[in-house]
TrEMBL record, chain A:
Organism: Nonlabens xylanidelens
Main localization category: membrane
Name of this protein: LemA protein
Entry GO terms, CC: membrane
Highest taxon of the lineage: Bacteria
Signal sequence region: none
Keywords for the protein's UniProt record, in alphabetical order: Membrane, Transmembrane, Transmembrane helix
PANTHER family: PROTEIN LEMA
Membrane topology (UniProt): Single-pass membrane protein
Family: Belongs to the LemA family.
UniProtKB/TrEMBL annotation, chain B:
Name under which the protein is recorded: Uncharacterized protein DUF3137
UniProt keyword annotations, A-Z: Membrane, Transmembrane, Transmembrane helix
InterPro entries: DUF3137
Species of provenance: Nonlabens xylanidelens
Highest taxon above the source species: Bacteria
Transmembrane domains' residue ranges: 27-52, 58-75, 164-182
């Protein structure tokens, strides 16, 4: 729906309902507030993602420096992490940034997997603390992403459903993009493990 | 079961059976004498008050009945002696034997934790007049500090049959009361008119297991999962009209979304606390136990109230103690508490508070 079509629909609706105590105007006002509030919520939750991703961004050099010299066989992995980290600030769109951050999650997860081959390093106190910090960071990113996606779902629902879609078209709101999960997170949880 | 535990249970069963055999005849005697006498004294007191309206004085008779009634209260009930013997003498030993970390207290609850849970913010618990707690256990299960107990909530409800009875009695006696007041010299016309005419009973409206444990994530804020079935519609209405410091969230599990209203002080905290694995574990508890627990998370702790409407570690003087098997239900109850903590995987700490 174009902006002009939406404007015509809104004007006609307000005029038709004006004899009934301007009820149409009140409805439009209510819808406007609701859709604008939801858009703000999306913006706020995006900034929540930004904060935790920035934390991880700052943590990566420390992580790499701590384990690089001990995990000599994983040189390629660390090079990829360092290279990706340098590209993230140059992302041109949300989609591109989300994609790179997902790759970063996978690569950092790869360190945990590789650690299995270094039992001495794995059992060191510093490494355990570092792993915890990394896991905690991933949990926070996951929470921020789910909060963001939940708000995006609510906004996108308003943008495509009647009658708020008319107002969304007038305001030229486009459906926001989701921060999709990484492939590793899409694997179904092992429910049976909960009963062991 | 371990051999030391079995031996302890065997010794306890022998002692308990001896005690039971000694107390059972006394309980029968108590049931056939003290209980009916107390009832008859109550009836007599009412009759004396009514008769006293026609033939005063009544005070001396009432005093006599009151004195006998109070005297009877001091006669201990053998059933209660047996109950206390198990709760104070036997159960602490069993708990200690099952897990050396456990500390058992027969009565009481953690008032501070109950208030921190945030359950009282909701209308469902606002009209409560009394809370009682029993079988409180503190301890450590797989490195998680826990505190759980049986809890009951009471409120006052109008007893309509009794209230109507009182009302009819007043109407029946009204001419006599008016006559007495008119003919008496210097009588106090306001006497007996104070208070409500409604008879109120204290009823138990919620009973279950209240559990508090250290949560495996460190966070600030509050998340409450309230079953829709007990959530107040008035609360929902006022929240939607006047706003609230809590915002409502929808999570990725349809079962939970359909059965619960989830409120959080911060959206991101809400999702951080309710990780997909935890949601899955809660859904499993709902499906296997067929109950809808109230759950809240507040500043690094989890609080859960499971409406299992039954008396844990129940005591029955008429049931003979036949060996170790008598205690099987007790052990099962202890293990059911442990199962919940293990099921939620609270021991998998991903963040240290230090």
């Amino acid at each position: 729906m174009s902006k002009s079509t939406a404007l015509i629909i809104l004007i006609v609706f307000v005029i038709i309902t004006s004899p009934f105590c301007f009820v149409g105007f009140i409805i439009v006002l209510f819808l406007y507030n609701s859709i604008v509030r939801q858009k703000n919520r999306v913006g706020m939750s995006y900034s929540g993602i930004d904060v935790v991703l920035k934390k991880r961004y700052d943590l990566v050099p420390n992580l790499v420096a701590s384990v690089k010299e001990y995990m000599s066989h994983e040189k390629e992995l660390f090079e990829k992490i360092t290279s990706l980290r340098s590209k993230i600030p140059n992302a041109t769109s949300k989609e591109e940034r989300f994609e790179m951050e997902n790759q970063m999650s996978q690569l950092l997860g790869g360190i945990n997997v590789s650690l299995e081959n270094y039992p001495d390093l794995k059992s060191s106190e510093n490494m355990i603390q570092l792993q915890r910090t990394l896991t905690e960071m991933e949990e926070q990113i996951s929470a921020a992403r789910r909060a963001y996606n939940s708000n995006v779902l609510a906004l996108n629902d308003k943008i495509v459903t009647v009658p708020s879609n008319v107002l969304a078209a007038f305001l030229e709101y486009k459906p926001a993009i989701y921060f999709e999960t990484t492939d590793s997170e899409k694997i179904n949880p092992n429910v049976s493990s909960l009963f062991r | 079961m371990r051999s030391e535990l079995i031996e302890l249970l065997r010794q306890n069963s022998i002692q308990l059976e001896k005690k039971r055999r000694k107390l059972k005849p006394l309980a029968l005697l108590y049931g056939f004498t003290v209980v009916p006498i107390r009832f008859l004294l109550k009836v007599a007191a009412v009759l004396i008050v009514i008769i006293g309206l026609f033939f005063p004085p009544i005070v001396l008779w009432l005093f006599l009945i009151g004195a006998i009634y109070i005297g009877l209260i001091f006669i201990p009930n053998p059933k209660e002696i047996y109950h206390d013997y198990i709760k104070e003498g036997i159960l602490p030993e069993i708990f200690k034997a099952v897990n050396s970390n456990y500390k058992y207290e027969p009565f009481g609850y953690n008032q501070e934790d109950l208030h921190s849970s945030g359950f009282f913010n909701k209308t469902f618990f606002r009209n409560n007049v009394r809370i009682t707690g029993e079988d409180r256990v503190k301890g450590v299960i797989e490195n998680v500090e826990v505190d759980f107990n049986e809890i009951s909530f009471f409120r006052e409800d109008i007893n309509w049959p009794k209230s109507i009875g009182v009302f009819l009695l007043i109407i029946f006696l009204l001419p006599v009361i008016i006559f007495r007041l008119i003919t008496s010299e210097g009588g106090d016309i306001n006497a007996g008119c104070g208070g409500s005419l409604f008879v109120r009973d204290t009823i138990q409206y919620y009973r279950g297991l209240f559990l508090c444990a250290d949560f495996n994530k460190n966070f600030e804020g509050n998340v409450i999962m309230m079953p829709k079935s007990i959530e107040s519609k008035w609360d929902r209405f006022t929240d939607s009209v006047f706003g609230s410091s809590f915002s409502k969230i929808q999570i990725e599990n349809q079962l939970i979304n359909s059965k619960y209203s989830i409120y959080t002080t911060n959206l991101q905290t809400g999702f951080y606390v309710l990780s997909p694995n935890l949601i899955e574990a809660i859904a499993q508890i709902i499906e296997t136990e067929k109950v809808l627990p109230m759950i809240s998370f507040n500043s690094g702790k989890i609080y859960m109230s499971i409406p299992w409407n039954r008396d844990y570690f129940s005591v029955n003087i008429n049931k003979s103690v036949e060996g170790v098997e008598y205690f099987t239900n007790y052990i099962d109850d202890i293990q059911s508490f442990e199962k919940i903590i293990k099921h939620l995987k609270l021991n998998v700490k991903i963040w240290s508070k230090t």
